[in-house]
């Protein structure tokens, strides 16, 4: 069976696209290049100062501080980088002035032009080793290139984001991580890959399907379905039958194999180089492509079904690094996905407050497959998590006729007309009533899982979805459970119900000390909620509403605390657990995302910051 080169994962073999080259050149000479470079400088300096990596010289001024960062050129000439910033009420975040960062040398001042030059000149103050600094610099530079291409394309595209369907918003939102300076590095993608597979360019792709030996794979499925029947429904009987016939054509028994889709880039760059011998010996069999087309979502490795939006999304292994995290799918997390789904969905069904009032949607990760053959210890890291998939339920079948879904991070973004995405919704009912409703809808299920059940959800960015009717918040959906929850077994409300999960292997822990599910202390569980939901989602929204709608940050957090206090009054029986997971603690720990890139993963990189919920009274 012949497969076109691009579908088989060989886009680089296609002829050079002259129009694409012209578009690349235009982007590099555009105002978007300067805008993106200024943004990266801001987020880089904000995070370095906030995480204590850099300590600037501070001169107090009205309305903010003048900051100076001192360094030296390679020849020893002193240089100073100058900017203005304020400490914000939300977790004491550092926020730079929108004006450009200025580089001063020999009395001459000009806008800072080079990210790599900046890091090299302040290197002595960073305290990191040269190899890590080089890798970090590459991530920044690649973010500049790739976001410039995305923004240049987006600014010239007609049509607003408002009113678009959920899957279109997932590809239309181009902001990336609002705190991490390497928010679009995508190390491993060249610029052609970026255009071919980046969600901002709304590509249509079809995964390559393999049949993998069952005895070399880890397989997990929700207890409420049969994997083979599920895959037959997803693929359609004709395609499913065609795949099985291909296995038989090789003289193999289909029952000894399990089907697994592969991202085209992953096929070309990782699977072929790593598993060519497995393909030669038919431990892996390429069976072709299916009929449905998919589009990448914000997380890049998750692709939504464009042909049939009600069908499952595919979370595929992707061996790139983005926001400083490898996008492989670790086999133990694939194995844990379905049991965690069944556990959380059972809780949501049996808890009357969740079932009847909050009605959160938990997008189940219903099937998971990871090809994980035995390999020598020395070779294990290379193939670890390189060939895995998780099937996740689509949000569409869960929505009523009147309901629509939007990614939660869309609430803090500007539309292409320069106005906030949420402006029409806010104008309908007023800013404070709308924000109060939003906070109630989003906070209550997160804290109820924490207080009533002892489970922390990693409800950050696109992991939370707002469900609304005509812009009025109604409920939320959650996703990404396979490595996005945390609990302490002894502190669960019903410990006997927790699933038997695969532990985090040391190989995985060495790469990311912050990636684990089972904790020992209540603070680890509580601060998982603070870090993901309050620090990422709500503090970004608080800053945005202050800057775009003049809603003071402190007022935002009084509204948020009011939601929590009303919950506490309603559930007096939970007082002991509420004290255990005290969300009003004066300080909390959040992850040091930038520091992680500059120093070894010998320990979790966390720092203690002021909790805004502790310094307001509820409204």
UniProtKB/TrEMBL annotation:
Residues 166-412 form the Aerobactin siderophore biosynthesis IucA/IucC N-terminal domain. It holds the Pfam family FhuF. GO terms for biological process: siderophore biosynthetic process. One of its GO terms (molecular function) is acid-amino acid ligase activity. Coiled coil: none annotated. Pathway: Siderophore biosynthesis. Residues 434-603 form the Aerobactin siderophore biosynthesis IucA/IucC-like C-terminal domain. PANTHER family: L-2,3-DIAMINOPROPANOATE--CITRATE LIGASE, STAPHYLOFERRIN B SYNTHASE. This is IucA/IucC family siderophore biosynthesis protein. It comes from Candidatus Manganitrophus noduliformans. The lineage of its organism: Bacteria, Pseudomonadati, Nitrospirota, Nitrospiria, Candidatus Troglogloeales.
């Amino acid at each position: 069976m012949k497969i076109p080169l691009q579908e088989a994962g060989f886009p680089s073999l296609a002829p050079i696209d002259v129009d694409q080259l012209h578009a690349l050149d235009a982007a590099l000479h555009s105002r978007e290049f300067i805008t993106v470079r200024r943004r990266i400088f801001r987020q880089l300096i904000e995070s370095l100062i906030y995480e204590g990596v850099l300590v600037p010289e501070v001169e107090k001024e009205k309305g903010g501080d003048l900051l100076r960062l001192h360094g030296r050129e390679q020849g020893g000439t002193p240089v100073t980088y100058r900017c203005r910033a304020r400490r914000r009420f939300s977790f004491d975040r550092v926020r730079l002035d929108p004006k450009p960062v200025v580089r001063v040398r020999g009395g001459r001042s000009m806008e800072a032009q080079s990210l790599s030059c900046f890091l090299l000149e302040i290197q002595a103050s960073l305290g990191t080793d040269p190899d890590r600094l080089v890798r970090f610099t590459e991530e920044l530079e690649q973010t500049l290139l790739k976001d410039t291409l995305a923004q240049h394309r987006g600014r010239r595209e007609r049509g607003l984001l408002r009113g678009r369907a959920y899957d279109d918003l997932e590809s239309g939102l181009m902001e990336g991580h609002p705190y991490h300076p390497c928010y679009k590095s995508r190390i491993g993608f060249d610029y052609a890959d970026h255009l071919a597979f980046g969600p901002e360019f709304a590509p249509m792709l079809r995964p390559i399907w393999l049949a993998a030996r069952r005895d070399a794979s880890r397989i997990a499925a929700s207890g409420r379905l049969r994997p083979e029947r599920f895959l037959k429904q997803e693929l359609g009987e004709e395609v499913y039958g065609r795949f099985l016939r291909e296995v038989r054509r090789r003289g193999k028994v289909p029952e000894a194999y399990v089907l697994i889709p592969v991202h085209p880039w992953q096929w070309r760059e990782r699977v072929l180089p790593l598993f060519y011998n497995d393909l030669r010996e038919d431990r892996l069999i390429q069976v072709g492509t299916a009929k449905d087309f998919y589009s990448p979502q914000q997380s890049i490795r998750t692709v939504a079904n464009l042909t049939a939006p009600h069908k499952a999304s595919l979370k595929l292994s992707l061996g790139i690094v983005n926001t400083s995290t490898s996008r492989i799918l670790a086999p133990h997390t694939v194995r844990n996905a379905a049991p965690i789904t069944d556990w959380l969905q059972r809780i949501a069904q049996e808890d009357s407050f969740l079932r009847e009032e909050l009605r959160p949607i938990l997008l189940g990760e219903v099937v998971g497959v990871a090809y994980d053959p035995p390999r020598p210890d020395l070779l294990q890291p290379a193939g670890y998590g390189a060939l895995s998939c998780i099937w996740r339920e689509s949000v569409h079948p869960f929505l009523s006729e009147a309901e629509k879904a939007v990614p939660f991070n869309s609430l803090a973004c500007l539309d292409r007309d320069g106005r906030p995405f949420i402006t029409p919704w806010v104008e309908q009912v007023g800013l404070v009533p709308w924000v109060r409703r939003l906070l109630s809808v989003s906070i209550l299920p997160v804290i109820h899982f924490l207080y009533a059940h002892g489970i922390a959800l990693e409800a950050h960015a696109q992991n939370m979805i707002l469900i609304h009717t005509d812009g009025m918040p109604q409920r939320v959906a959650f996703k990404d459970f396979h490595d996005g929850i945390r609990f302490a077994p002894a502190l669960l409300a019903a410990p006997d119900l927790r699933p038997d999960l695969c532990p985090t292997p040391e190989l995985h822990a060495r790469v990311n000390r912050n990636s684990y599910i089972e904790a020992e202390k209540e603070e680890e569980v509580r601060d998982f909620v603070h870090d993901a939901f309050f620090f990422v989602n709500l503090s970004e929204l608080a800053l945005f509403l202050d800057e775009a709608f003049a809603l003071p940050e402190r007022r935002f957090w009084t509204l948020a605390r009011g939601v929590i206090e009303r919950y506490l009054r309603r559930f007096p029986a939970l007082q002991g657990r509420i004290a255990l997971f005290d969300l009003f603690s004066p300080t909390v720990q959040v992850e040091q995302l930038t520091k992680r890139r500059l120093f070894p993963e010998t320990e979790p990189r966390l720092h203690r910051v002021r909790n805004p919920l502790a310094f307001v009274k509820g409204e």
